[in-house]
Design brief:
Length: 358
């Protein structure tokens, strides 16, 4: 593959990374504004065209009026209010369709021009499968809110978000492979293990964030640093509350939301401390300037994310703070991107390097 072709593929993948990033942000807005159930059917082709006249809007609104969300939460909503939530869900789906075109057309062109290696083709097919599975889980998530509950199931939301983040991370990794070469890597076994451990903990924290959003757990304890005056919420201290029913019926039992928020806070504290230690470990190791920059960015984004998390919790006063919630999610993806970049730079050591370490 020529350098020119590699650069073209790199910029194409970077476009995909940016588009997936904004798709996840649109998903966050859709969730936090309660817009996800406004479109009650999954029409891949015909759903591209929005309502164009008063009759179309009336039909769409009537479909929404048949949902549990309308009857239990939004009864009496005006057509103007419905158009607002419809807009966000429609944009979320339209952006997904646009991503398909942006990926498929250059992919076909690169194939015809024979610019893709067999190994890269296999990796791109994995990316396609990941995106398709994430989209399918998105519809399963929506379906969960069209039967009995007036909102989507928190666990399905978490799975949908997790798949979207895996797709994002995989696309980013492929993109980095096109822009960075062997000379940019750092061979340090201990730093590499540390970085992978941080990535694992951060991934767990992002899953908790999805559950926080799905369960609207921030409404329970909108205080900091204590949770309504306690380090550990009282509901978590009673063994009788630790039952499968409490996890399943999180909408009528505060145990699961309390546990998720407590664990999310605790994980944030641990992650922050470890990132600070990791930052100083990178400096002490005398890594190259690219990894040093990655370490600094990781520390700065972590601090920003913690600050946003605190502000978001403090503004859960009877309703979800949409702007802060979206910003918190947006910075979380930047944090994931930075962590992946650092992990990418820390490659496995050669046998000689292992011998030197011993």
């Amino acid at each position: 593959m020529t350098g020119s072709a590699q650069k073209q593929i790199g910029w194409w993948l970077l476009t995909g990374v940016v588009m997936i990033y904004f798709q996840i942000i649109l998903g966050g807005i859709t969730r936090l504004t309660g817009s996800g159930l406004s479109i009650t059917k999954w029409e891949i082709v015909t759903g591209t065209v929005p309502p164009l006249n008063a009759d179309d809007w009336s039909r769409e609104f009537d479909k929404y009026k048949a949902t549990p969300q309308y009857h239990k939460l939004n009864k009496g909503m005006t057509l103007g209010e419905f158009k607002f939530i419809y807009f966000w869900e429609y944009l979320h789906r339209l952006w997904a369709r646009l991503m398909g075109f942006v990926f498929a057309i250059p992919f076909a062109v690169f194939l015809l021009q024979k610019k893709l290696s067999a190994a890269l083709i296999r990796k791109l097919l994995v990316l396609i499968v990941l995106a398709a599975v994430a989209a399918a889980f998105g519809w399963l998530m929506v379906q969960s809110g069209l039967v009995d509950r007036p909102w989507v199931d928190a666990y399905r939301l978490m799975l949908h978000l997790s798949l979207a983040l895996v797709t994002f991370g995989y696309c980013l990794w492929l993109c980095l492979s096109e822009f960075f070469s062997q000379r940019d890597f750092v061979y340090n076994r201990s730093l590499r293990k540390f970085a992978w451990a941080l990535l694992g903990l951060l991934s767990f924290q992002l899953v908790l964030g999805g559950l926080m959003s799905g369960m609207r757990a921030g409404l329970l304890y909108p205080t900091f640093p204590l949770m309504n005056g306690r380090i550990i919420p009282q509901v978590l201290l009673s063994i009788s509350n630790w039952t499968p029913v409490a996890f399943l019926h999180y909408d009528t039992n505060i145990f699961a939301p309390a546990l998720i928020q407590f664990t999310h806070r605790l994980t944030a504290y641990v992650l922050t401390v470890l990132v600070v230690i990791f930052f100083f470990r990178i400096r002490k190791a005398g890594a190259n300037h690219i990894l040093q920059a990655g370490g600094r960015l990781l520390l700065l984004v972590t601090i920003a994310q913690v600050a946003l998390g605190i502000l978001t919790v403090l503004h859960f006063r009877g309703e979800v703070p949409v702007t802060l919630g979206v910003l918190h999610q947006a910075v979380a993806i930047v944090l994931l991107s930075t962590m992946l970049f650092v992990v990418f730079l820390l490659r496995k050591s050669s046998p000689a390097d292992y011998a030197d370490e011993r």
